[in-house]
Design brief:
The chain is mostly helical. Helix content is 80%, strand content 0%.
Length: 209
C-alpha cells in the first residue's frame, strides 16, 4: 500500500468515528424529546460519545495531518495508527455497556500508552530535521507536550474515585485538567502547528514579529 492510499484509509477510519460520534450525539439529543429504549443508559452514552469524538475523530485527524503535513515516514506510524483505532473501536463497544468499567479503563490506558509512543516518535523524527527549531516545529512539540500533560490526571482518576468518589471536587478537577490541556493545548497548538507548516510548504510569508 503506497503512502497516499494508506493515508486515505486512515482518513476514512477517522471519518467513520466522526459519523459514529455524531450518531451518539443525536441519540443524546433525542433523549430530551423522546424516550430511549430501557437498555440504553444516557450517562454511558455520553462517555462513549466524548471518547469517540475526541480520540477517534480529533486525535486521529491530528495524527493523520501531522504525519502528512510534516512529511513523516508513514510506514513507521502505520501499525501504531491501527492499534490506536482498535482501542477506540473497543471503547465504542465497552462504554455504552459498562461505562467506566474494567474493559473501558484498560482500553483507555492502552490508548494513552500508544499516544506516548506517537509523541516519542514525532520528537525522534523531528530531532533529525534541519528545521527543528522553526516556529511550526516548536508549536508541534508544544502541542505534543500538552497532550502528554493532559493524560497525567487520568492516572490519578482511579485513586481519586476510590478514595473520594465521583462527586468530589478533586474528581471534577482531574476531569477539567484533562479537558483543558486537550482542547486548549493539544488541539489548538496542533492546529496552529499544521497551519504554520502549511504556510512554509506553500511559501506563504507570515510576519512573526
Amino acid at each position: 500500500m503506497n503512502k497516499h492510499t494508506c493515508q486515505l484509509t486512515w482518513a476514512q477510519s477517522a471519518l467513520v468515528f466522526f459519523f459514529l460520534a455524531s450518531i451518539l450525539g443525536i441519540l443524546m439529543r433525542y433523549s430530551f424529546v423522546g424516550v430511549l429504549p430501557y437498555w440504553v443508559d444516557y450517562r454511558k452514552i455520553t462517555f462513549a460519545h466524548s471518547h469517540i469524538a475526541m480520540l477517534g475523530w480529533v486525535y486521529s485527524g491530528l495524527y493523520i495531518f501531522i504525519v502528512r503535513v510534516f512529511q513523516l515516514n508513514h510506514s513507521s506510524y502505520y501499525k501504531l495508527f491501527w492499534l490506536t483505532q482498535l482501542s477506540v473501536a473497543g471503547m465504542l463497544i465497552s462504554y455504552p455497556i459498562e461505562g467506566y468499567g474494567m474493559i473501558s479503563i484498560a482500553l483507555n490506558t492502552i490508548h494513552i500508552l500508544l499516544s506516548y509512543t506517537f509523541i516519542y516518535r514525532v520528537f525522534r523524527d523531528m530531532k533529525n530535521r534541519q528545521e527543528k527549531n522553526t516556529l511550526d516545529v516548536i508549536f508541534l512539540k508544544t502541542a505534543l507536550i500538552f497532550l502528554l500533560l493532559s493524560t497525567l490526571s487520568t492516572w490519578l482518576l482511579g485513586y481519586v474515585m476510590s478514595q473520594y468518589g465521583k462527586e468530589s471536587s478533586l474528581y471534577f478537577d482531574s476531569i477539567q485538567f484533562f479537558l483543558h490541556f486537550q482542547f486548549n493545548g493539544w488541539f489548538v497548538f496542533g492546529v496552529i502547528a499544521l497551519l504554520l507548516r502549511h504556510s512554509v510548504v506553500r511559501k506563504i510569508h507570515i510576519d512573526h514579529s
